[in-house]
Backbone:
């Protein structure tokens, strides 16, 4: 079980939608999470990896160099 606090305007919109469609607000909260959770995970996990990379002091390789090494450069 999860309890969340929503801004008044967002709660009002959610309540209106739930009342208009005869579905519980939890249905729409779950739907929104299902649609966006993967994107949120990707963003935060990528940020964590970037922070670890920056802290490592390892040198970055420019994209052009990677493409050249892989034989992808024109």
Residues:
């Amino acid at each position: 079980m999860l309890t969340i606090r929503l801004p008044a305007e967002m709660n009002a919109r959610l309540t209106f939608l739930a009342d208009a469609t005869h579905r519980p607000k939890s249905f729409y909260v779950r739907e929104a999470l299902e649609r966006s959770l993967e994107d949120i995970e990707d963003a935060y996990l990528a940020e964590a990896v970037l922070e670890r990379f920056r802290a490592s002091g390892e040198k970055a390789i420019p994209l052009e160099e990677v493409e050249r090494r892989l034989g992808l450069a024109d």
About this structure: The radius of gyration is 22 Å. The helical segments are 8-21, 25-56, 63-69.
